[in-house]
Design goal:
The complex is a heterodimer of chains A (about 200) and B (about 250).
Chain A lengths: L4 H14 L2 H12 L6 H12 L4 H25 L11 H32 L6 H7 L3 H28 L6 H28 L2
Helix pairs in contact in A: 1-4, 1-7, 2-8, 4-5, 5-7, 7-8
Chain B lengths: L4 E8 L8 E8 L6 H10 L27 E4 L2 E4 L12 E4 L6 E3 L2 E2 L2 H9 L20 H11 L6 H5 L12 H12 L7 H8 L13 H5 L6 H21 L5
Classes of the chains: A mainly alpha (about 200), B alpha+beta (about 250).
Chain lengths: ~200, ~250
């Protein structure tokens, strides 16, 4: 299939954003929600996740390789667009712009978050409730985490909408409108889960 | 000059290489003017608002009833046809600019060749020429014909490309118009015989996958063509085509 590299890469980019990266995001938010049930409960869950068999394989193939492929190719997509939401202020055009803005914020946030937790863990730090409570003891970091997590959740939810369009699942205008409501419902639900989790550490 | 006047601010450019500049014009008001009749008025008496003699403005026009697409330009910030841009319905001063997504030839005239090249690239026709009479083709149901008629209204005017954030100098995206034509010709009972050729053509670089779903095209199309529905439908068709290309298929 000479010449369809762009087509295949774009489709792969769309797929990986949902499977596995989106699924991992939901799993991560759900496991973190244990924090609302107390420090011991969170430590127990973090310990379980951290000691899963095949941990490095899971991390590589479910998280890091698809995540950074999606992120780096996403940057290329972002910078080949010439945004015009100020001239064409339609709802979908704003979502198009927001998808790109939240994508870039998410990449910055996630890279910092990986550095602060997973890479710190590789150098011997222990990932537990206390680690997060220490990080979130500064108001700046609380704001950074809120912006980062909400960006990630928005990027996933709105990305789900365009995933349905890109693979030809939602074709008619009505199906795309319904899909907008459903994915924005997903955004609100995940936003509640993630904000409650962040405040559980404060 | 009568008391009531209309004011134009026009972005002009003397040649493809020179820098654009703005020139203002003031015309006496007449009822029922459109942008083209105002441009004709300036052509008759090419004097700008300062009273200096200037060159007449270059623009393209042909049908004057919004079916040819030639007179598209950016009017008060939005791309549209100047023939149906009625002066009475426009905010003053009226700002005219060329559609800069395309190479500017002179003033408001742009070169839309890339759109015609894209139509060739996606094979937007039905190949029936041969050495003998093939006889009548399969019939098209009337309901489908009515549906297809809407897609056939595309006049290659360039408004959807101008509105699209992914059609720009950094990207090789062919834009919504030629994609929707693929759907039109693939839906035709005879055209469907070459469906795969067209799908494979839009699966190349700069094709369907470069769409970012901003959906400005469907909001901007002067003919109300359901461009984003065409794109989503083609997304579905190319999903199947990609699997067929990779794994093969027993369906002919």
């Amino acid at each position: 299939m000479a010449g369809s590299r762009n087509f295949n890469t774009r489709r792969l980019h769309s797929l990986l954003g949902v499977i596995p990266v989106g699924l991992f995001l939901i799993e991560h938010l759900v496991v973190n929600y244990f924090a609302t049930k107390g420090a011991a409960s969170f430590d127990n869950a973090a310990d379980f996740m951290g000691n899963l068999p095949f941990r490095y394989l899971l991390e590589a193939f479910v998280i890091f390789i698809p995540l950074y492929f999606h992120a780096i190719y996403g940057l290329y997509i972002t910078f080949t667009a010439k945004n015009n939401a100020s001239r064409y202020g339609y709802f979908r055009n704003w979502m198009f712009l927001l998808q790109r803005v939240t994508g870039v914020i998410t990449l910055i946030y996630v890279s910092w978050h990986v550095w602060e937790t997973r890479i710190a863990a590789a150098f011997g730090a222990e990932v537990n409730y206390q680690m997060m409570a220490d990080i979130l003891s500064s108001p700046f970091m609380v704001a950074f985490y809120l912006i980062g997590v909400l960006s990630a959740v928005f990027h996933f939810s709105n990305g789900l909408w365009s995933f349905f369009v890109s693979w030809g699942l939602t074709v008619s205008p009505r199906s795309q409108r319904v899909s907008t409501y459903v994915t924005m419902g997903v955004f609100v639900a995940l936003a509640i889960v993630s904000v409650r989790t962040i405040f559980a550490f404060i | 000059m009568s008391a009531k006047t209309i004011k134009f601010i026009i972005t002009r450019q003397d040649s493809p290489e020179t820098a654009p500049y703005q020139e203002e014009f003031e015309l006496s008001y007449r009822p029922n003017m459109n942008v083209i009749s105002a441009l004709m008025e300036i052509r008759r008496n090419p004097v700008n608002a300062k009273g200096e003699a200037t060159t007449p403005i270059t623009w393209e026009m042909n049908c004057l009833e919004e079916v040819c697409g030639a007179c598209s330009m950016v009017i008060n910030g939005k791309p549209r046809q100047s023939c149906t841009a009625l002066v009475d319905k426009l905010e003053q001063p009226i700002r005219l600019e060329p559609m800069k997504t395309f190479p500017v030839v002179r003033d408001l005239a742009v070169d839309r060749s890339r759109m015609f090249d894209a139509l060739k690239r996606v094979k937007a026709w039905i190949p029936i020429d041969g050495t003998y009479d093939l006889g009548p083709g399969p019939r098209m149901p009337e309901t489908k014909r009515q549906w297809a008629y809407e897609l056939s209204k595309c006049m290659t005017c360039g408004v959807c490309l101008e509105a699209c954030p992914n059609v720009n100098s950094k990207s090789d995206f062919i834009g919504p118009a030629p994609l929707s034509q693929v759907r039109l010709f693939n839906a035709h009972p005879t055209g469907a015989m070459n469906k795969e050729e067209r799908l494979n053509a839009i699966m190349t670089d700069g094709g369907l996958a470069s769409c970012g779903n901003s959906q400005n095209c469907v909001q901007s199309c002067p003919k109300g063509i359901p461009l984003t529905t065409s794109i989503a439908a083609l997304n579905r068709d190319t999903t199947f085509q990609a699997f067929k290309n990779f794994f093969g298929s027993d369906r002919v």
